[in-house]
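Much of the work behind modern protein science is quiet bookkeeping, done one molecule at a time. The protein below has been through that process, and both of its lines are reproduced in full.


***
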Amino acid sequence: MSTDGGTAPPAPRLAGIRSRWLDAAIAGLRDDPGVAGAALVGSLGAGRADDWSDIDLLVFVDDADLDEYAVPGRLPSGPGVLAASFDARHNGPRGTRAVSGQHLVDGLPLWVDWHIQPVSRAGRPADSVVVFDRRGFDRLPVTFSDLLSTGEPEPPTPKEPADLQIARLAMVPIAGKRIARRSPETARMIDFLGGPCQPGASWRRHLAELRRLLDGFAPLGLPASVAAGHAYLDLVADALG
């Protein structure tokens, strides 16, 4: 879920890709009778999104179908291809599921977080925008962030070292987004991805480090993700330059 609140320059190409993808995915959700409701959450739901914002979608399904909808690729997609997908259930409370993924659209990456909740505990967070609601769920007096942190978290699923590296590759553009926003969290995220933590470095230095990290992920055998990451960093450089 996007949490950066910095000011970023316009990126109309990214905003257009996000809009097209979201329109198609929402149409797919509406066509699925097993989805009881859906809402935009994160920055899009809270009304603080910018052109660089990712997509966070909250969907409600019958309790018995929870695990089915958490299978990567089960939920609808927009244009492009799903390059990488990750079980992210540990980001929510017990009894819920989450799936994160990198989609490649027109040569650029788009990060999507799906938050899947059973109808037995469904409710619309205060800072969400309802897409559709087939069962009349209550509006909750808490934010989506508060909802995610309620109670004990869902245990993470085991992941192989290669899976963790693929996740880091897919998150390089997220670090690039933080550069575009001049976020103070940029250095910390680069450190998480395997680069040096340099809080005082210039944005150009941070970009150069992310490019080096991208090239280091080449042995994973995902050249399209590496190329899309470089294309994204080119957009960051153009926007800030």
Strands lie at 35-40, 55-61, 81-87, 97-105, 108-118, 129-133. The chain has two domains: 12-148, 161-240. The longest strand covers residues 108-118.
